[in-house]
Design a protein that fits this description.
Elements lengths: L2 H24 L4 H6 L6 H13 L6 H9 L4 H28 L6 H8 L6 H32 L4 H49 L3 H10 L13 H8 L9 H9 L6 H32 L22 H9 L2 H39 L5 H24 L3 H27 L5 H20 L3 E2 L2 E2 H4 L3 H18 L5 H18 L1
Antiparallel strand pairs: 1-2
Helix pairs in contact: 1-8, 1-14, 3-8, 3-11, 3-12, 3-14, 4-12, 5-10, 5-11, 5-12, 5-20, 6-7, 7-8, 7-14, 7-15, 7-16, 7-17, 8-12, 8-14, 8-15, 11-14, 13-14, 14-15, 16-17, 16-19, 17-19
């Protein structure tokens, strides 16, 4: 590993640990402070924390790699995500912040579901908590795996060492600093990602000589790189756009909305978050397109041999950001750019780790084991849960199976279909019932699993190859919520009164 790269990584890790120490000393020891930052996040931290925990390494590796191969025919997923994120800020964020506060100061989503519907059976809490814990443990394992792989491929360390470094640093600042540390590190990591996704495509563009030679080379390529409809089908476009539906049900993203200090801050948070997201997405797309031009024209300097195949071409399109960062910049700057990938990975791991430990603490330990547990006891259990979830994730990532990786790839659809319609209806429809909520969640999750794993094919193709599973999952979940709520008895007078109370509080908060 180059000395400059090592220095950049050391600075990055020390900064993350320093933020964790600051959060440990300044955040309160009560459970709301540890798991939700005392609902005191500012708009900037809220926005970049939500964005960084959302995008992960996909922003710097997956998306540039897709554009490197297929050009702007992949733009639909970026459009879908952008629209979904904007609508999430607009229709979910303000109401969720107010409703979770009024509904007995709900700390987790299962906590909110139980309080919103006055669920005495606790089935809503139990089912939603199981979904969160199982899928986020797999998500966390995939993130740790990605960190170990990055250290192996980019830094020359062995996989196990990289895995333990990634997990160790994340666990350290999450364990001690809680939600505040996770959010503040996400903010810094979001800034690093933002700068990196501007620097890399701009530097490559300048070295290639500007717009004229770049456009000439694109015109000479085998496929129309700038045509968004090249090879597209109606169902294919719908599937890519439908990724945006997932935002309404992602616990690690919408928990940021629950933690902001005031709903009046959402306007600024939305502006910051959407500006960050749009510019970063454009940077990622241009990295792939301009990277393809660079690899086609600069044949004398295609980067380290480890990234090339036997024909001297890029072996894995998803490494284009890594290759450009090592070719175009001094090792000190290149180390900073590689730290951006690590930042993207770690921001998602820490968010998922904290949401999972919070659910273990509030939705299992407090709800079913120690209902009279003090705040300090809950914080202690939360910290122990961080270690347990991290240990399980490390164990899974030491020998990752294809089954694990494919399940994690479908978890976005699972969360979106199971929780998205449930959250939106719970915030807007007074007549929604407990039975409708539970049925909608089960149907949404079940449809996604059926769509992925059912031994049904059409012309030899699986159902998921025709349309992304979040589409039928979300649609059937929403229909189920409406039908079951209409067919079941109206909510009790106390639940209707609580809903009216939340509506009045929302109007007060917005004035």
């Amino acid at each position: 590993m180059e000395t400059g790269t090592l220095i950049s990584l050391a600075i990055y890790f020390l900064a993350m640990l320093g933020i964790g120490l600051y959060a440990y000393r300044t955040s309160t020891s009560d459970v709301s402070g540890y798991m939700l930052g005392g609902r005191q996040l500012g708009p900037g931290v809220t926005a970049l924390s939500a964005g960084a925990s959302d995008m992960s390494g996909w922003m710097l590796m997956g998306l540039p790699g897709a554009f490197f191969v297929a050009g702007f025919s992949e733009v639909w997923i970026a459009i879908g995500l952008t629209v979904g994120a904007y609508l999430n800020y607009l229709i979910v964020a303000p109401r969720l912040r107010t409703y979770t506060h009024v509904a007995k100061d709900s700390i987790t989503l299962p906590d909110y579901f139980e309080n919103r519907f006055n669920d005495q059976s606790r089935a809503l809490r139990l089912v939603s908590a199981v979904v969160i814990i199982v899928f986020f443990t797999l998500y966390t394992a995939a993130g740790v795996y990605a960190g170990g792989t990055l250290f192996l491929n980019a830094f020359g360390l062995n996989y196990e060492t990289g895995l333990l470094i990634t997990a160790g640093v994340v666990v350290a600042y999450t364990l001690f600093g809680g939600f505040l540390a996770v959010s503040m590190t996400d903010f810094v990591q979001g800034c690093i990602m933002f700068i990196a996704l501007i620097m890399v495509p701009v530097a490559a563009f300048i070295i290639l000589g500007g717009s004229e030679p770049v456009m000439q080379e694109i015109a000479r390529m085998d496929q129309p790189m700038l045509n968004p409809l090249h090879g597209a089908t109606v169902l294919g476009v719908i599937s890519l756009l439908a990724w945006g539906l997932g935002y309404f049900g992602q616990p690690h993203i919408i928990v940021r909305f629950m933690a902001i200090r005031s709903i009046k801050d959402f306007k600024m948070a939305r502006r910051i978050g959407m500006s960050w997201m749009i510019i970063a997405l454009i940077g990622a797309m241009l990295t792939g397109i301009i990277g393809a031009v660079y690899m086609a024209t600069q044949t004398g300097n295609l980067g380290p041999a480890a990234y090339l195949d036997e024909h001297g071409q890029l072996a894995d399109s998803e490494t284009i950001f890594i290759v450009l960062s090592q070719i175009l910049f001094h090792p000190l700057v290149g180390g900073f750019l590689l730290a951006a990938i690590l930042a993207a990975i770690m921001s998602t791991i820490s968010s998922q780790l904290l949401v999972t430990s919070s659910s273990l603490t509030k939705d299992f330990y407090l709800a079913f084991m120690r209902r009279d547990a003090s705040d300090s006891e809950q914080v202690l259990v939360g910290r122990i849960s961080v270690v347990i979830v991290a240990a399980v994730a490390i164990a899974l990532s030491l020998n990752p199976s294809q089954n694990l990786l494919s399940q994690v790839g479908n978890a976005w659809a699972g969360f979106g279909a199971a929780f998205g319609p449930l959250i939106i209806f719970s915030l807007y429809w007074k007549r929604m019932t407990y039975a409708g909520a539970l049925s909608g969640m089960l149907v949404g999750a079940g449809t996604v699993l059926f769509w992925i794993y059912a031994p049904i094919t059409i012309a030899g193709e699986t159902l998921s190859s025709y349309v992304y599973e979040i589409v039928p999952g979300t649609l059937l979940s929403a229909i189920t919520i409406v039908l079951v709520s209409k067919l079941s008895a109206e909510p009790s007078a106390s639940i209707l009164q609580d809903f009216d109370k939340m509506e009045r509080r929302l109007k007060t908060d917005m004035d």
